[in-house]
Amino acid sequence: xxxxxxxxxxxxxxxxxxxxxxxxxxxxxxxxxxxxxxxxxxxxxxxxxxxxxxxxxxxxxx
Length: 62
Hints:
With 62 residues, the protein is an all-alpha fold. It has helices spanning 8-30, 34-46. This is Motility protein B-like N-terminal domain-containing protein.
């Protein structure tokens, strides 16, 4: 083992854990019934749409 330590494994482990969490989240959502799948789909479909015609950001709509 190197005397200076070495923390590269922590980054690789964090990437692996994040990927596993995402995988199990997708598998869990896919195992739900059709109503819940539809609700999740609708949430992501309308999440970033503006309800008003005004700008929701810092750049005004002309």
